[in-house]
Structures are given as structure tokens and as C-alpha cells.
Amino acid sequence: MTPDEFREYGHRLIDWIADYRKRVYAGEFPALAQVKYGELSRKLAASPPQEAEPFDAVLRDLENLIVPAISHFQHPGFFAYFPSNSLLASVLGDHVSTGLAQLGLNWASSPALTELEEVTTDWFRQMLGLSAEWRGVIHETASNASLVALLCARERASGRSAAHGGLQGVPSPITVYASEQSHSSIEKAVLLAGFGRDNLRLLPTDRDHALRVDALESALERDLAEGATPGAIVACVGTTGTTAIDPLTRIAASARRHGLWLHVDAAMAGSAMILPECRSLWEGVELADSLVVNPHKWLGAAFDCTTYYVRNPAELVSVMSTNPSYLQTEADGEAKNFRDWGIPLGRRFRALKLWFLIREQGVAGLQARLRRDLANAQWLKQQVDATPGWKRLAPVPFQTVCMRYEPKGLEGEALDRHTLAWCGRINASGRAWLTPAQLDGRWMVRVSIGAEPTERRHVQALWELMRREAESTNRQ
Amino acid sequence: MTPDEFREYGHRLIDWIADYRKRVYAGEFPALAQVKYGELSRKLAASPPQEAEPFDAVLRDLENLIVPAISHFQHPGFFAYFPSNSLLASVLGDHVSTGLAQLGLNWASSPALTELEEVTTDWFRQMLGLSAEWRGVIHETASNASLVALLCARERASGRSAAHGGLQGVPSPITVYASEQSHSSIEKAVLLAGFGRDNLRLLPTDRDHALRVDALESALERDLAEGATPGAIVACVGTTGTTAIDPLTRIAASARRHGLWLHVDAAMAGSAMILPECRSLWEGVELADSLVVNPHKWLGAAFDCTTYYVRNPAELVSVMSTNPSYLQTEADGEAKNFRDWGIPLGRRFRALKLWFLIREQGVAGLQARLRRDLANAQWLKQQVDATPGWKRLAPVPFQTVCMRYEPKGLEGEALDRHTLAWCGRINASGRAWLTPAQLDGRWMVRVSIGAEPTERRHVQALWELMRREAESTNRQ
User: Fold this and answer.
1) Are A237 and A279 in contact (CB under 8 A)?
2) Of A292, B121, B315, B319, which sees the most CB atoms within 10 A?
3) Percent of chain B with pLDDT over 90
4) CA B344, CA A147: separation in Å to the nearest integer?
5) Do B196 and A161 touch (CB under 8 A)?
6) Residues of A with CB below 8 A from B327's CB?
7) How far is A228 from chain B (nearest CA, A)?
8) How far does A157 lie from chain B, in Å, by closest CA?
9) Closest residue on chain B to A317 (Cα)
10) Cβ contact (<8 Å) for B102 and A70?
11) β partners of residue A445
């Protein structure tokens, strides 16, 4: 494809994307794809074409085959998981990144890639109200960032074991702590880092589903008595289940006392900290060693864009760096090489999409949207609290409301079946998309507000739909 | 930004990217950025804008600030590292991915994302001539894929230690083997996976810089005698230094005998296997457990697009899976959830850029370009071999020619200074971009051919430039 052909097809694709966004914002598609597994695969050629195909054929398949088989995170009825917003200015930033085809291997391979990442992660640090002690880098996802954090914790607790016998050589097992409400990526990172499930303590939570510091202290004492080496604790600001907030200041005190690495997982809720009125919710964050916040969630940077902040970059680099001759340049020593701040060697120019987003929206624009969503969540919370039969299951510090319809006489597994049934009916209607989850052993429904096009009227419509489906399912 | 504003600015950016590509293909920019560290940062605002900025200001900065601070992997004078091609059809596929703003969490969250990835990685498998025993997935980079491979190897060798005490509980150290020419990402993966540097055996190579199987056998015997558990070997098809090829069949025999996981790193050179005439070079690949090939290198998929193939997906999933309630759907069990095939939970719709590329080029189109590059490398090899004073330092099985100009009387560190000097002069000229590297303790120059716009005349021009700079530097 020549640049002029790219121009022609690119214009058509830009129009197509603009139209797609108009259609999705208008709720034209079912929010959750209504297809069966394998339905798309069966329509696709089983083997690659030997000769070039006309590009028009590709574009036709995009509309006719791909679009019917996707779910729509940008739908106004998207209330599932967490928002995965992708504001159009950020989309353009990503288009530029791909068009320029940069590859970050070291600073010299793309000076702008490195320097814009330094500057833009520092902008975002300021927006979050973090001190100048923090240095940021962009990773693929929070799963990757939390794995990096736990690898650094492992190396600190094991006396830099990687340089010697590895974790295989440690004299006593290193233990890791998190609440039982922590994200699955934390458990996964603990296992991948080699600690072993036996050395992960998933601690009980209080009635607000936040980590119990007394349980942490007991676990630490028990482990120390048994000769283990406590290595790290992961605290959550905004858990996935209910957006619970672990008490950072008190956790940090325990961490300091026992020499634990403190990693803060604020992947979703961290974006709320661009609002000064929210910052008391993560008081103590300055006492952490590392922090992850995903601008690709609620904030609206095109996925993938995870920011990872550390207070001691030298410690991070000591764990993650390699320096083969073919990557050395004259700028080493002076320039930052972000390959030493994460797992991959090669890196995309991801800062562009965050830079475009912040400039096109302004801090004030981003703040206004997040405040809209917080207000919508409070509105829904009030409805749930005021409506007989409905039970709210957790505090609403951010934009997620957890609830269940509990008709008289239904409990246990019958209640679970009822909850999953009405939630499934809503998802099958295509009008909204909700994620059920388990809390205290029972299924509930999370209404996670904050898709870009979601206004109050969409939340109102959802609430009406939920009442209708939950209450009528019960009458059947 | 509304869809209509996106349309307006999107058209302008498509034109801008098309023009950028025309300019870079014409050699208008210096191949390697001619800036100093911090030069760009100092021109950027130190703090984010409180209010929205006009989008025109962003576009102006793109042209005036960003472009002067980037190096150009798509330049016809790009002969550095390895090709990082990004063909324009693939760029459009990536644009669509970002525009649709999909997020792969499980199959249901984006059925097309999962199914197109299954289909497209299977197309590429067929193109590589691999048997139907392999199943593919797309990862961010080869560093990530090789880390996943070594984690799986660790779990096999340790009897699924992650489910128990982790690597901390293994009775005898697990050892890993690779050649001293293996990529730095292998050493990094060994350290991150917790094996420890003391348990990594970087084996000597033969005169063609390929792993010596006798050295492998000796190391295995020594380790077994000392009570270690050999766990994995990484074999390279196309090392970074010289594109050397480790003897897979013989290595696989050792691996089978000792129960080692065999991971094949064909990140760059794997693309050559779309040419049937190259496939004898990786004979034995079917005996491996895992394999990484990067379509985002020579083949031309927009970065990032690493394909990772395994023969036993169940074993991969057993190491990488998590299954919290909020990710469960009715399709589980039937549908594939690629989150269990790698480190990240959330995943981009990366298959689109590979699908667009293969369809727009056809297998024949991709083959023709790679054959052009192989022929160009053979031409350069002949020039080097035929020119007094020049020494070729390695075989040329693919598209990289390793060489040094060795004037009479220069050796040791003086020769190193001379090599780095003339190579530095070429890079400073902006006309070409070369990567020096160390081989057998001395600096040499790798000419890695295969940027998309690089034709024979560009290789000829490079050779003239190299001769002029190397021979004239010597006369000074």
C-alpha cells in the first residue's frame, strides 16, 4: 500500500470510525455482542490468501463480519467491569503513534518517545496530586505493572537473589499480603514471581470490604514466628468487586515496621484523584513504594496505557535492566532507557495518546466528566437505598454501585439464580451490559458508571430496566 | 472531541501520516535523530493545561517538536537493530483497533478479538510451514513471550511449584541453558522468573556463533552431577548479533533426553520461514515446546505484534490462568480466554493489524519482499568478501551482514575505536543508521537489511558510504 493508497483508505476508515462512534453513542448496537462462540470463525477463510486481496474486501468484512461480533465498551449502556473509555482525541494520538512507527529500544532509537513519556507521566503525576518524589513510566496493563512491583519486592526481600541463586536460594520463604478483595492480577503476579500460593496471604476484609489491618498484623506475627520473611503488601484503592479502599496510612505503618514493599493498586479509582475532593481517600499513598493507575480506564486514554510510578527508580532499574552491546549508545548514563523500567525491550510511543487526551480535554474537562459520573453514582445509590426489596451491598466512594434485588423468601442458591437470571436478561436485551460478581459468597450486580457517553438519563433508563427485569423475573 | 471533530482532525492526520511516510521513504529526514537528551523536554510545558487547548496547537507541536526528535525506522537508510517494518495496511488495521476501542478480558467482552486472533495466528502458522499441532496467541513483545515460556518451563520442572511453596520450595536448583549469543531478553526472563543468574548457563558457540551441543551436554552432565534439575533450554534461530542458527534437531534430542522445556526464539528470522526455501534452517522446530516469532519485525505488522506458539495450550493455561467471579461468563469452557495465555488481563485487538497486512499483501507479496532483502544481503556479502581490508565476521543465512574494516596495523582497542568512529560518522550523517555490536570481544558493524523502502540502490549507496567513511577515517 503506497502512501497515496493509505490516504484514500485512511480517509474512508476515519469516516467509518466516526460513523461507528456516532452509532455506538446512539445505542444502535447491542451493548454486549449477541453471538455464539465460533460464529465468526466459521465465516472467515481458514487459510491466508496467496495473492493480495482488494482492500475493499477487507473493509466489507470489517462492517459485515467483525462489527456484529464485538461488544461495545463505548455504548451509553455500558455498566460492566470498569469503564474502558477511549476518547477520540486519544484515539488520534494512538493513530499518530502507529503512523510514525517508532520503536523505543533505548533513548536514541526514539528520543521523543522517551522524553514525551517522562513529561506526560509527570503531568499526570501532578494531576493526581502526587509529590515530585514519584517517577512514572507507561506499561501495557496493570497486570504487568503489578508483576514488576512484586518482582522488585522479591529482589529487595531476598537480598537481590536474582544476581545469585534466585528465589531457589532464599533461606526462608518470602510472604506476600493482600486483601481477599484484591484483583486477580495480584494473585497471578505472586504466582508468576515464584513466591508460591502457600506464601500468599489473602486477608479478610471489614464490612466495607477493605483490608483489615488487625488481620494483617496477625498474619505478619504468625509468619515471622514461623521463620518466614514478609516481603510485600499490595493495598487496593478501589477494589474490582466494590471499589473498596484499603487504609493506606495504617497499612504503610505496618509495612515500614516490617520492611515490606508497599504496592498500591489504584488501577481504576486512581483517576478520581485528579479531583482534589477525592484525594483524602488515598491518604498515605506517599508512603508507598510503587503505584499503578490506568489512564486507559475511566480517564479515557485509548487502551493500552497503564502508568506505573515508583519513588526509587534506581531500585527498579537494578531489577529490570539488561545492557547488551547492541543496545548501548553514547547517550547511556545521561538519558533514561525505559526498557529498564519494565518487562519488554521494544516499546510503543504510548505517551502520544495520553498527551493528546490531556491537551484536548484540559484538566478541567477531564475533571468535569468524572464529577458527572460520581454524581450519577450517588443518584443511583439513593434510588437503591430508597426502594423496597433492593439492597445496596457496599459503600459508593467512586462510580460503582453494588446491589441485589432480594425478594422475600428467596435466599441462598435460589437468590443467586434469580440475580444471574435478571442480569442475564438485561445483557441479552442489548440495552445495557452489566457484570455480576460474587461478594461474601453470593452473586450480586455491579453497576459501574462512567462510559464516556453515559449521561444521567442512561442511568435512569438502566434503573428502570433493572427494576422491571428483577421484579418481573420474580413474579414469574 | 465529537465524532465530527474526529472526522475533521482524523482526515488531517491521515494526510499528515501519508505525507510523513512519503518524506521518510524519500530519505528527507536524518535516519537517526540528531538531538541531545533533554532537548525536547525543555520545549514542552512542564505542567498540564488546566483548560482545553485548540487541537491545532497539538498538531503544530507534532510537526515542529516531535518529528525533529524521532529516529526513522521506515527510512531507506535504516540498517540498525532489526527491521521494524510497519506496512501501511497494517497501520490501518491498528487504526481500526483503536477506533473500535475493544478490550479483551474474556471471549464475551469481544468475541471478534478472540476469534480473529485464533484465525490469524493460525494463518501465520500455515505461512510458516508449522504443523497443525501448534496454537498461537499474540503478545506485546518477544521479551514477554519468552518470559511466559520460561515460567511454564519453571512450573513443569518444579512440579507445579506455584500452586504450593513456589520456587522457594524446590529441593534442588532448576537450571536454564542458552547460548552466549542469545538475546538479552532471555537472560532477563531467567532472572525475572526467579531462577537466578547462578543457574543460567550461557554456553559457548561454534565458529558460526551457534550453540555448541557438546558444550550443552557437558553442562547438563555437570549440573546433574551436582544435583541440579535442568529445566529449560532456549535455542535461537537468528541471533541478534549475527543471525546465527542454533542446531534445533540436536538440541531437541538433548532436551528430550533430560526432560528440558525447549523454547525457540525466532523473533526476527522466523518471518523468513514464509519462504519454503528457508525452512531447512529451522529443521527440528516441531520438537520444541514453544516458539516466538515477531510479525512486527521484518514481516511488517505494526508494532506491537508478537506471535507465541505452543504445542500444549492446557499446560500454558494451567500456569497463566486466573478465574475471578467478575470475569466468568456462560461461554467459559467452550470459548478460549486469551487472558490465560499471557501476563495481561486486558488485551488490545491486535489481530486486526496482522489480518489487514496478510490480506492486503497476500502471502506472495510478503514473500517477494523478503526475497528481495535476502538477495540484497547476498549482494552486500559478496562486496565485503571481494574487497581488501574488509572482513566478514559471520555467515549470512538471512538479511544481516556482519563486518569490520581492518586496516593494516590496527588491532585491539585501537581497532574498536576506529570501528566505532566510522560507524558513528555514518549515523551522524543522517544518511544511514547502523548498529555496532560486540562479537568475540571486539566491536563490529551489523548491516541489517530489510526496511520496507530499502532497495538495492540504497544498499549500494550504503556500501559506498561505508567504504568512504571507514577508509578515509583510516587515512586521517
Assistant:
1) no
2) A292
3) 95
4) 10
5) yes
6) 184
7) 11
8) 13
9) B188
10) yes
11) A403, A436
Q: Are B194 and A154 inside 8 Å of each other by CB? A: yes
Cβ of B359 within 8 Å of Cβ of A112? The answer is no
DSSP for B287-338 reads G-SEEEE-TTTTT-PPSS-EEEEES-HHHHHHHH----GGG--TTBTTB--G
Is pLDDT at B70 greater than 80 in this prediction? yes
Confidence class of residue A474 from pLDDT cuts 50, 70 and 90? Answer: low
Q: Give the count of Cβ contacts less than 8 A between chain A and B.
A: 492
Mean pLDDT of all residues belonging to chain B: 96
Contacts of B416 in chain A (CB under 8 A): none
**Cα dihedral across residues B29, B31, B36, B38: positive or negative:** positive
Q: What is the 8-class DSSP label of residue A54?
A: P
Spatial contact of B78 and B72, defined as CB atoms under 8 Å apart: yes
Question: How crowded is residue B333: how many other Cβ atoms within 10 Å of its Cβ?
Answer: 9
**B363 to A49: CB separation less than 8 angstroms, yes or no:** yes
Residue A137: its H or E element: strand A135-139
| Residue B326 CB contacts under 8 Å (≥ 6 apart), including other chains | A81, A240, A241, A435, A436, A437, A438, A446
d(CA A122, CA A139): 15
A167/A159 Cα distance (integer angstroms): 10
**DSSP per-residue codes, A380-417:** HHHHHHHSTTEEE-S--SSSEEEEEE--TT--HHHHHH
How far apart CA A401 and CA B48 sit, in angstroms, is 31
- Residue in B183, B304, B360 nearest the CB of A52: B360
Tell me how crowded residue A421 is: count the other CB atoms within 10 A of its CB: 14
* Beta-carbon separation of A196 and B162 below 8 A: yes
Nearest to B41 among A85, A98, A115 (CB): A115
Edge-to-edge strands of the sheet including A229-236?
Answer: A135-139, A306-310, A290-293, A261-265, A229-236, A174-179, A200-203
Classified as helix, coil or strand, A333 is: coil
Q: What letters, b where the CB count within 10 A reaches 16 and e where it falls short, cover A151-171?
A: bbbbbbbbeebbeebbbbbbe
Q: How many CA atoms lie within 13 A of A280 on its CB side?
A: 2
Burial group, residue A353, by CB count within 10 angstroms (0-12, 13-18, 19+): buried
Matching residue, cell 482488494 = A54
| pTM exceeds 0.80 | yes
Confidence of residue B473 (pLDDT cuts 50, 70, 90): low
For residue B25, what pLDDT is reported? 97
Closest by alpha carbon to A401, among A452, A453, A462, A471?
A462
Grid coordinates of A60: 466489507
Tell me the residue length of chain A: 476
Position B323 confidence tier, pLDDT thresholds 50, 70, 90 = confident
CA B345 to chain centre: 22
Average confidence (pLDDT) over A203-212: 98
Closest CA to B438 of B469, B400, B404: B404
- What is the Cα–Cα distance from B155 to B157, expressed in whole angstroms? 6
Chain A positions touching B320 (Cβ under 8 A) are 188, 192
Task: Report the alpha-carbon distance of residue A56 to residue A50 in Å, rounded.
Answer: 17
Contacts of B183 in chain A (CB under 8 A): 324
Partner residue opposite B103 with nearest CB, options A2, A91, A303? A303
Distance between CA A431 and CA B89 in Å, rounded? Answer: 34
Give A320's contacts in chain B (Cβ within 8 Å): 188, 192
* 8-state DSSP, A297: T
**Contact: B48, A105; criterion CB under 8 Å:** no
Answer yes or no: do B37 and A111 touch at CB < 8 A. yes
Cis-peptide, bond into residue B15, ω within 30° of zero: no
Could you count the other beta carbons within 10 Å of the beta carbon of residue B367? 18
